[in-house]
Design goal:
Elements (H helix, E strand, L loop, with lengths): L3 E4 L5 H12 L3 H4 L4 H4 L2 H7 L1 E7 L2 E11 L2 E9 L8 H15 L4 E7 L3 H9 L3 E7 L5 E8 L1
Parallel strand pairs: 4-5
Antiparallel strand pairs: 1-2, 2-3, 3-4, 5-7, 6-7
Length: 150
């Protein structure tokens, strides 16, 4: 199915929140809590971050949330609708972020994820990201920082 990538508008905020909740729901049993993207204030984030949406047949199926930070493009959130996961859409959105960073003259992509999200860590490593640090979180899980030079 062809996918269009477009920048979000304020009218998309509730759909962004709903998609993120459904995409991250599978991680609730792994963490024993809702992952942070499920509880984010997307009204506030929309004023500070860029959201690019993947749309198929008029339906939101994925998104990538980015923000430039210290010469890098931080990927704050990558969320794919459950029915569209494991079909290459995440890689397509990561390629889009790569191009956004280049267009902005940035030199690297950065992101963070939870060590328990092993599939995500493996995807990012396949895409050329390396682990640059780890931080223990209060709930006993570990945040992994990752980077990819452009």
């Amino acid at each position: 199915m062809p996918v269009e990538i477009r920048q979000a508008t304020a009218a998309d905020i509730s759909a962004i929140a709903a998609l993120t909740r459904s995409a991250y729901a599978k991680w609730v049993p792994v963490l024993g809590r809702e992952p942070l993207p499920m509880t984010a204030d997307y009204e506030a984030a929309f004023t500070r971050h860029q959201f690019d949406l993947a749309v198929a047949d008029g339906k939101l199926v994925g998104l990538i949330e980015t923000v430039p930070v210290e010469g890098a493009l931080l990927i704050e959130n990558l969320a794919i609708a459950p029915d569209f996961q494991r079909q290459g859409l995440g890689s397509q959105l990561m390629d889009h972020a790569h191009q956004l960073a280049l267009d902005q003259g940035l030199v690297r992509l950065t992101l963070y994820t939870n060590r328990r999200f092993t599939g995500n860590v493996e995807l990012y490593q396949r895409l050329g990201f390396v682990i640059t640090g780890e931080e223990a979180l209060p709930d006993g899980s570990v945040r992994i920082d990752m980077r990819k030079a452009l």
